[in-house]
């Protein structure tokens, strides 16, 4: 068979087979070019354009990829892989193998949908001692974030229909106090939810709500605003590091346990307890770092009650002092 006849036959086969491959829509299938769209989900969609050099199939097919949702950089990488694949098939049919290769790539690399976000998180938030691992087979990202002697391991799951559905977050091993770990993850889940769910009471001036990508926002919060921030913060009362430099030491001194208040500042348990019981009490107690009112479940007392307790404590101390004076 001549090369021309073989090419005609390959085109006819491609025309028959491509529409039967799940996810493909054939647009053109002629000697000038073969063009098909591939769709896995709304955001995993691309166009495959194949062109044929004069000596085809004795030279490799030329692949071009375009997409409205996948990043340019990812597409460039994928074109290179297609070229490698086609090189192995020089002298043979290449149309269907390249089409299948593109499809397999999208199916086997679910994180391709957020490749740009992953690159930006890596560049902006991941330090030398941190680790980031992509798990394509289960569509999740593993992070180990370190600040001095503290670390937190996080698992971020990217759903198939991302970014229409938000990422899910799990904290595994960590040596942060449990109170903080629970807060970090709880807030991160909330941030992710707000990326895809419209507010209950939308502001009329705002443009209509559109779901947006949640991976970068979640990682920025967890890495920059949590794990990297808190180990370096000082207690608003005593001005010492609020989290002990050695995480092991906390167990030995319960007064050095951390407490987190409404404004986000951390206190030593002992320092906050003392501060909450010391006047002035008028209109409540305020955070010395940011001036916001302190709300905490463990110290839910009214200014009047705090005042009464303070007076009582003072009276007892006076009595005690009198007794000591008398005895000395
Ligand atoms: Zn303190
Ligand atoms: Zn504060």
Task: Note the total helix count.
Answer: 8
Encode the helix/strand succession as letters.
Answer: HEEEEHHHEEEEHHEEHH
- Structural class category: alpha+beta
Please give the oligomerization state of what you see: single chain
Structure keywords:
Ubiquitin Conjugating Enzyme; four-stranded antiparallel sheet; alpha+beta; 10 strands; 19% strand; binds zinc ion; 328 residues
Task: Report on this structure.
The protein is α+β, with helices and mostly antiparallel strands and 328 residues long. Among the domains are: 3-108, Ubiquitin Conjugating Enzyme; 114-232, Roll (Ubiquitin Conjugating Enzyme), CATH 3.10.110. The protein has eight helices and ten strands. The chain has helices spanning 3-17, 72-88, 95-108, 115-125, 178-196, 215-227, 269-276, 303-327, and strands at residues 24-29, 34-41, 44-51, 62-66, 131-135, 140-147, 150-157, 168-174, 258-260, 266-268. A four-stranded antiparallel sheet has the order 1-2-3-4, with helices on one face. A four-stranded antiparallel sheet has the order 5-6-7-8, with helices on one face. Strands 9-10 form a two-stranded antiparallel ribbon. A hairpin with a 4-residue loop joins strand 1 (24-29) and strand 2. The longest helix has 25 residues, at 303-327.
């Amino acid at each position: 068979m001549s090369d021309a006849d073989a090419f005609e036959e390959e085109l006819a086969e491609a025309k028959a087979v491509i529409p039967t491959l799940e996810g493909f829509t054939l647009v053109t299938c002629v000697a000038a070019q073969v063009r098909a769209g591939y769709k896995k989900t709304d955001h995993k969609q691309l166009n495959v354009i194949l062109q044929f050099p004069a000596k085809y199939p004795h030279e490799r097919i030329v692949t071009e990829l375009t997409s409205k949702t996948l990043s340019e950089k990812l597409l460039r990488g994928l074109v290179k892989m297609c070229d490698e694949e086609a090189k192995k098939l020089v002298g043979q049919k290449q149309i269907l193998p390249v089409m299948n290769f593109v499809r397999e790539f999208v199916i086997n690399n679910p994180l391709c949908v957020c490749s740009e976000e992953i690159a930006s998180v890596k560049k902006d938030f991941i330090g030398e001692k941190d680790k980031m691992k992509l798990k394509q087979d289960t569509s999740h990202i593993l992070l180990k974030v370190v600040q001095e002697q503290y670390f937190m391991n996080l698992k971020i799951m990217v759903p198939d229909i991302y970014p229409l559905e938000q990422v899910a977050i799990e904290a595994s091993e960590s040596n942060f106090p449990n109170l903080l770990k629970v807060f970090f993850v709880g807030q991160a889940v909330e941030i992710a939810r707000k990326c895809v769910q419209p507010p209950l009471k939308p502001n009329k001036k705002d443009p209509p709500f559109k779901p947006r990508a949640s991976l970068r926002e979640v990682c920025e919060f967890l890495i920059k605003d949590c794990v990297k921030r808190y180990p370096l913060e000082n207690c608003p009362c005593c001005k010492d590091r609020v989290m002990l430099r050695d995480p092991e030491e906390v167990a030995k001194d319960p007064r050095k346990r951390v407490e987190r208040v409404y404004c986000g500042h951390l206190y030593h348990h002992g320092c906050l307890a003392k501060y909450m019981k010391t006047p002035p009490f008028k209109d409540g107690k305020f955070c010395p770092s940011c001036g916001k009112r302190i709300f905490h479940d463990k110290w839910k007392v009214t200014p009047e009650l705090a005042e009464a307790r303070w007076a009582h404590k003072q009276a007892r101390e006076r009595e005690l002092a009198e007794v000591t004076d008398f005895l000395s």
